[in-house]
Amino acid sequence: MTQKRIRDYGIMPGRIKTGKRNKITDVPGVRVGHCTVKEGEVHTGVTVILPGPDNAFLNPYTAAAYVHNGFGKSCGLIQIQELGTLETPIALTNTLNVGKVWDAVAEYVLRQCENDGAEALSINPVVGECNDSRINRISLRAIGAGQVKKAFDAAGEDPEEGDVGAGAGTICYGLKGGIGTSSRVIKVGEKEYTIGVLVQSNFGATEDLMVDGRPLGREILEKYGNEAEDPVKKTAFSEQDKGSIMSILATDLPVTDRQLTRIIRRLGVGIARTGAYTGHGSGEVMIGFTTANRVPTKGLRREEEELRTLTAIPEEIINRAFLAAAEAEEEAILNSMAAAGETRGLKGEYYRSLSDILSQEGEIH
Q1: Is the pTM of this model over 0.90?
Q2: Among residues 74, 244, 336, 355, which one is catalytic?
Q3: CA distances from 65 to 82, 112, 216, 305 (A)
Q4: Which residues partner with 159 through β-bridges?
Q5: Please, what is the average pLDDT of the chain?
Q6: What pLDDT does residue 365 have?
Q7: Whether 244 is catalytic
Q8: What is 108-155 written as a DSSP string?
């Protein structure tokens, strides 16, 4: 079955044109893979984002990380913030599997280096997480090396969205959340550059949900709120903004890590456009990288080189990237919900699908 995306309902967030697929993989070289585990009370998974086809440890990417609200257990952010580089793929999973996924990513990089004839003595795997314990029996810690390998093996240019991979067990605005992605294309001089975003959505109070400026969350509660008391339906809604969202931004725009930090901070604008205010119990973590301005390790540089030349956009035009990031984030969140199907939680509660709600009322204009 073809997955629905928010544009299938006549909702066109933003005004900048999208990339070919309208996904993070519109950035050349970027691939995404999922492994989803749905067995009994286990409803979870892992998602990997590969920044390019080669070994990132030997040829790191200019990168940035920003924590908007720090209720989270991510790994690898400190070194990104300090050095401004990304040396491994990025993995997303649930809260209690961060350590196991970190270990699997480290092993993946070690094998890459071994194949490339290099030795890695220190690795900084980057792993983000959301707590999916409303749907998934998180204490079973079902994601390990085997599942991470499957995600790497499945990595491609047209990733699925919704309740797959790291989004299998997430809730967004009290509806089913998941993995969502979107992209925007901006022009600098005579050349076009792509900004792509992927999210793992697990945040927001139902009442606050905004879709293309429409207070849909309030309308949902007015129409379906009484179902919460129904002993059969037991429709669940979220009263508080909690749970977290991981946001990954990729681009081929030539920027410094400082400029990239400024750009990924605007992902918070996209979150706010969907209605959230960043609650106490929600972790908003943003990670970004550019495929331009690679930072080769010493072994790939000429020994006499002590200076590095890079290209970067002037600050006066960075607004183009700011707007593109905000728009892509907003649409990625809505896609994560539109592509996700209805599901039941561990207590039998029912989480509605945004697509089902929009389908019942037809297109929104």
Answers
A1: yes
A2: 244
A3: 9, 24, 31, 28
A4: none
A5: 94
A6: 37
A7: yes
A8: HHHHHHHHTT---S----EEEEE--TTTS-GGG----HHHHHHHHHT-
Rounded (10°) CA dihedral 227, 231, 237, 242: 170
Answer whether residue 202 shows pLDDT above 70: yes
| 110 has pLDDT over 70 | yes
For residue 57, the 8-state DSSP code is: T
d(CA 127, CA 222): 38
Q: Tell which phi-psi region holds residue 40, choosing left (phi > 0), alpha (psi between -120 and 50) or beta.
A: left
Spatial neighbors of 240 by CB under 8 A, at least 6 apart, are 205, 279, 281
- Could you tell me which residues come within 8 angstroms of residue 205 by beta carbon, excluding any fewer than 6 positions away? 173, 174, 217, 238, 239, 240, 241, 276, 279
Write down the residue that tokens 């109070």 correspond to. Answer: 205
Q: Per residue in 122-160, pLDDT tens?
A: 999 999 999 999 999 999 999 999 999 999 999 999 999
Active-site residue, from 284, 327, 330, 331: 284
Q: For residue 280, which of 246, 243, 245 has the smallest C-alpha distance? A: 243
> Of 340, 4, 49, nearest to 172 (Cα)?
340
Check residue 232 and give its pLDDT: 83
| Given 74, 282, 336, 355, the catalytic residue | 282
Which of 157, 152, 177, 307 lies closest to 236 in space, CA to CA? 177
pLDDT digits 0-9 by tens, 161-180: 999 999 999 999 999 999 99
**Token pair for 125:** 């795997």
Residues 6+ apart with CB under 8 A from 330: 13, 14, 182, 270, 271, 273, 274
Which helix (H) or strand (E) is 251 found in, with range? Answer: strand 245-251
Placement of tokens 């790994």 in the chain: 75
Which one-letter DSSP state was computed for residue 48?
A: E
The partner residues of 242 in beta bridges, in order of sequence, read 281
Amino acid at residue number 13: P
**In b/e form, how buried is each residue of 313-342, taking b as 16+ CB within 10 angstroms?**
beeeebebbbbbbbbbbbbbbbbbbbbbbb
DSSP 3-state of 99: helix
What SS3 state is found at 79?
Answer: helix
